[in-house]
Amino acid sequence: MNGEQESANALVISYLALRRVIGILGTLLPFLLFFGALIIFGTGIQDSISAYYHTDMGDVLVGVLFAMGFFLLSYRGYKPVDNKFGNLGFVFALGVALFPTPPESPSRLDVFIGYAHFAFAGLFFLTLIYFSLCLFTKTHPNRPPTPMKLKRNRVYWACGYTMLLCIVLIVVFYVLPAGVRSIIAAHSPVFWLEAIAIVAFGISWLTKGEALLRDEA
Question: What is the pTM of this model?
Fold first, then answer.
């Protein structure tokens, strides 16, 4: 194996490892927040993933978002558009971290920051959905997809549409009449929907990193 081949192989391995790290961070985040807050600090389930910012697990949430953001910034796909969406994911992830969701008794500034938080969070999820549905499902134009690639595409579609459904249901929850919303809110639906969406995102990236359904050669 010559030097160029070794360099190319190392580059492929580093890209796969990068995707796996992003997938692991996404998959673990809801569990880290929920069990960390419950076991270490005795804090119960919050209304949303973002609400953990105002608990003792806030630093963990911000740290994971920053890590995911910088990993997305380092991501390089096959085409420039892939890189652009990685850069957008970086901006949106940092936006979610730097503009937290409002506390229980918000000031006017908190409310304004909260609007920015929701905007960044929505754009972040839309970027992740685009990765799963539009970028990860692409196949090399000069090579037919392998059987494993076809299986991976099904995973990408399932994860992408799961994330999209979760976001739609969250929006539906917030536009429900106040009385109905208050009854449902007792079960923390936004937290569970966000957790499902984030785990789906993680599975999608783990699959892209070939930690799941890897080609034999």
Answer: 0.89
